[in-house]
C-alpha cells in the first residue's frame, strides 16, 4: 500500500471515530442520556415495544398460518 | 464491518466508541434503523420522547440520515433472500432478527450496547451460524 493510500485510510478512520460533526453539544448530552444515562432503560423498553407492536418486525406471527 | 445495535449506532455518532469495540467500520441494519426512526417520529409522551423532542434539527437529521463515513445503514435488499431463508429455517424471527442475522453472515460480529437489546432468539441463531455476539461496556 502506498503512503497516499495509508493516509487516506487513516483519514477515513479518523472521521469514523470522531462521530458526526453536525451534533451540537446539547444534542450530544441528550443522546448520552439515552444510550448510557438515565434514559437508557426507557430507550430499551421503547425499542422492545416497537418490535412487539409490529409482528413483521418482531416476529410475532406463526409462519404456518397462511 | 461490524453490525451494531441502536445503542452503539448512536454512540458511534457521538464519537463515543466503547473500549473493546474492534476498530472497524460500523453498520446498522435497516430494520434497526426503522425502530430508531419510529422512536423519533412517534413520540410516546414519556421522558424519552421529551428529550428527543429537544434535539436540534441537525441532531434529528443525524439520526435520520447518519453520515456514512461514521455509520453505514445496510441496504436491506441484498440481505432479504438470506433473511427470508433464516426466518424459514428458524421460525418466528421477525424481520429485525432475520435481517440482523443475515448481516451477521457478512459481518461475523454483532455488538450490542446493552444486554437488554439481545433477544434469546437472535443469540441462538448467531451461535448456530457461528457468529459472535458481544456486549460493549
Describe the model.
The complex is a heterodimer of chains A (66) and B (137). By secondary structure, chain A is mainly α. Chain A has helices at residues 3-18, 25-35, 40-52, 55-58. Chain A is built from four helices and no strands. Chain A is elongated and about 50 Å long. Chain B is of the alpha/beta class. Chain B has one domain (2-32, 68-135). Chain B is built from seven helices and five strands, in the order βαβαααβααβαβ. At the A-B interface, α1, α2, α3 and α4 of A face α1, α2, α3, α4 and α6 of B.
> If you compute it from the alpha carbons, what radius of gyration of chain A comes out, rounded to the nearest whole angstrom?
20 Å
Q: How many strands, which pairing sense, and closed or not: the largest β-sheet of chain A? A: none
**Which pair of chains forms the biggest interface, and how many residues does each contribute?**
A-B, 41 and 52 residues
Please give the alpha-carbon distance between the first and last residues of chain B.
Answer: 19 Å
> How does the overall form of chain A come out from the CA principal axes?
elongated
What's the helical proportion of residues of chain B? 40-55%
Unreliably modeled segments of chain B: none
What is the N-to-C order of secondary-structure elements of chain A (H for helix, E for strand)? HHHH
Helix/strand-derived category of chain B reads alpha/beta
Rg of chain B: 15 Å
Amino acid at each position: 500500500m502506498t503512503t497516499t493510500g495509508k493516509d487516506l485510510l487513516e483519514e477515513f478512520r479518523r472521521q469514523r471515530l470522531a462521530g458526526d460533526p453536525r451534533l451540537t453539544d446539547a444534542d450530544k448530552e441528550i443522546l448520552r442520556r439515552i444510550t448510557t444515562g438515565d434514559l437508557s432503560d426507557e430507550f430499551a423498553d421503547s425499542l422492545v415495544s416497537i418490535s412487539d407492536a409490529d409482528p413483521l418486525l418482531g416476529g410475532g406471527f406463526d409462519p404456518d398460518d397462511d | 464491518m461490524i453490525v451494531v445495535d441502536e445503542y452503539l449506532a448512536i454512540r458511534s455518532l457521538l464519537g463515543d466508541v466503547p473500549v473493546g469495540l474492534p476498530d472497524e467500520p460500523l453498520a446498522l441494519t435497516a430494520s434497526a434503523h426503522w425502530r430508531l426512526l419510529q422512536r423519533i417520529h412517534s413520540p410516546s409522551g414519556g421522558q424519552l420522547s421529551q428529550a428527543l423532542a429537544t434535539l436540534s434539527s441537525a441532531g434529528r437529521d443525524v439520526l435520520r440520515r447518519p453520515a456514512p463515513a461514521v455509520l453505514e445503514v445496510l441496504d436491506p435488499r441484498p440481505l432479504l433472500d438470506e433473511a427470508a431463508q433464516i426466518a424459514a429455517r428458524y421460525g418466528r424471527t421477525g424481520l429485525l432478527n432475520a435481517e440482523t442475522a443475515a448481516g451477521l453472515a457478512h459481518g461475523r460480529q454483532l455488538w450490542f450496547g446493552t444486554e437488554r437489546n439481545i433477544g434469546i432468539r437472535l443469540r441462538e441463531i448467531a451461535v448456530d451460524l457461528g457468529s459472535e455476539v458481544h456486549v460493549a461496556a
